[in-house]
Amino acid sequence: MDIYYNWEQLKKWCVREFNADGRMSWKFRFQNFWYLHFGFLYLHNKKLHYRYVVSTAAYNVGPYIGDYFRSIIWQSVDFKKSICLIITDDASTDNTAAIIKKWQRRYPKNIIYLKHAENQGVSVTRNTGLKYALENIEADFITFIDPDDFVNRNY
Question: What pTM was computed for the model?
Answer without folding.
Answer: 0.67
